[in-house]
Amino acid sequence: MTDRRPLLRAIFDAAVAAAHPNVVLSAHLPPAPKGKVICLAAGKGAAAMAAAAERHYLDTLGLDPSRLTGLATTRHGHGVPTRRIRVVEAGHPVPDEAGLRAADETLRLAAEATADDLLLVLLSGGGSANWIAPADGVSFAQKQQVNRALLRSGAPIGEMNVVRKHLSRIKGGRLARAGQRAAEIVTLAISDVPHDDPSAIASGPTVPDSSTLTDARALVAKYNLTVDDAVRRALDDVRNESCKPGDPAFARARFEMIAKPKASLDAAIKVAKDAGYEVVGLGADLEGEAREVAANHARLALKAQSEGKRTAILSGGELTVTVRGNGRGGPNQEYALALADTLKDTSGIVALAADTDGADGGAGSATDPAGALIDQTTFAKMKSLGLDPAAYLANNDATAFFSATGDLLLTGPTLTNVNDVRVILVDPA
Q: Which positions fall inside the MOFRL domain (predicted)?
């Protein structure tokens, strides 16, 4: 059988390349102001976005370097060299003290902006964890504990961010409030959320938020989150309500999406079509439990094969895992593991599932896997080693399974984030 792994990887790489800051940012950068450009960036693409902004203002426009300043806060291992905008590497998915200090400095820089200055905010996925500024009365340790509980709950990212926004001094429009003396606040964002909701990207630090403290309390109850009393008090305190439409903070604020998951999925689809596959596109906004979505997609693949169709099934979005075991992994690895369990006696079907940022779950290291691949070599190795995918699924231990089979996808940091890409290639048996 032909090795389809190079094609799977080419499809994934096309999705990532379409959203790289070097490709998408410069055309959207605003003109230089009378005063300074103060660049505040957060997320997995933050350093790459800051470096691209530097090239635009310093090299293309010839801006005096003294008029460009700022801070980019990114995930550990995602930093790149910069000249004027300082880069801080911080914790993700669980925040750390580097992110705590960086968020405080970010708020200070925003507050120092004058009526001659441009506040340029560059956002990408991961910004919610990178910018950690606990609400008054909530300790850093308590905020970390809330993040861990949310990550294990199976809640979709939008719901996680509702809780985060109401326990923060920077999220939910509060960064705009801190910088409202600037001449203009321009936010350019790479979307990592289903349906591209601006208030969900990095928890919406510069846009109005329609969710409420009541919503946040309801989610704590819905997922039976274990939180400290200080957190419950904060969610009862009206001073922690997020910024709503009409707030003066947004009078001179503009938001623009510069890269969306759909554009990346379209780039991936083109590669699959050019390779001769009939594409079934399931959209860029899928949500749901990873193993359940995998079961649905496996059925689609088996049906296509039974009909003798050479088919590529592609989808984006962000799946979730309700953690019940003690293993390691992320939603893409769990999806691939569930596929392996269903398709283990099948030939002619291969798959890749990976996060476009290069990290699927993991411990916050730059060497975390992006996801996993499966094909006939996976199934053969699984049988030779006596591995039971169902047992690994029960323990949420996809990383250990694919470490044993040699099928982890290791890309390193990609410096962008437009959610996940899942590809199933079906050839007639």
A: 312-420
